[in-house]
Amino acid sequence: MLSYFSNPQRFDQLARILIPIFGALALVLFGVGVWLAFFNSPPDYQQGETIRIMYVHVPAAYMAMALYAALAVASFVYFVWRHALADTAAEVIAPIGAAFTILALFTGSLWGKPMWGTWWEWDARMTSVLVLLLVYLGYMALRAALDDAQQAARTGAILAMAGILNLVIVKFSVDWWSSLHQPASVIRLDGPTIHSSQLWPLAIMALAYTCLAGWLILYRLRSQALRRRVRALQRRRDHVARQREEAVS
């Protein structure tokens, strides 16, 4: 399938269909999710109204991790099979994932202040998410620092794959070390432990974030593909022009 859609025309056709679908779904889901989360769900019996930060923070943290996993997979596909589309996907995912990570850290600090009495605590979960942001930023900086495009893609892919270790630490940090964060309450083998009045708004907001990320990725992928096509046509035109000049001379 990746080989099929690595064809620029096929990918462009798919992207033109999916971009408005993801955009419309994101708008609808955000509308429903915000209404349920901020106006229709009850306050928490311990945390009160501050629980509403959860509906922004938890999906942001989920997307930060999910997008890094996607970045690592795209990097692996490029590293092994040299698919240009996979490398482009990794390149466009990185800044989007970094933005979600920043949102997760910011809203986590807002939530932590009234609950824990501090904006920041160097516990395992918070520190590993900060490291996740640094890996995102390091990946982008590394690619920007190398002039050779293929070397930048290959070196960036190695860094992205190595960063999977930190992603595992983020996921299991609350289980392996003592942490201010509560253990997983949604994705559990024995089922969610939060009430449905909070679970449904949280799930809808998570879907809204997912559709937003899908829209952003596809939009940027299509833009990058169009830029590469324009550059390829310019190089072809310049090559033809040089050949004509050589023939005339």
TrEMBL record:
This is Heme exporter protein C. Pfam families: Cytochrom_C_asm. The chain crosses the membrane at residues 17-39, 59-80, 92-112, 124-146, 158-179, 199-219. Required for the export of heme to the periplasm for the biogenesis of c-type cytochromes. Keywords: Cell inner membrane, Cell membrane, Cytochrome c-type biogenesis, Membrane, Transmembrane, Transmembrane helix, Transport. InterPro entries: Cyt_c_assembly, Cyt_c_biogenesis_CcmC, Cyt_c_biogenesis_CcsA/CcmC, Sortase_SrtB_target. Signal peptide: none annotated. GO terms for molecular function: heme binding; heme transmembrane transporter activity. It comes from Maricaulis maris. GO terms for cellular component: plasma membrane. Residues 4-181 form the Cytochrome c assembly protein domain. Belongs to the CcmC/CycZ/HelC family.
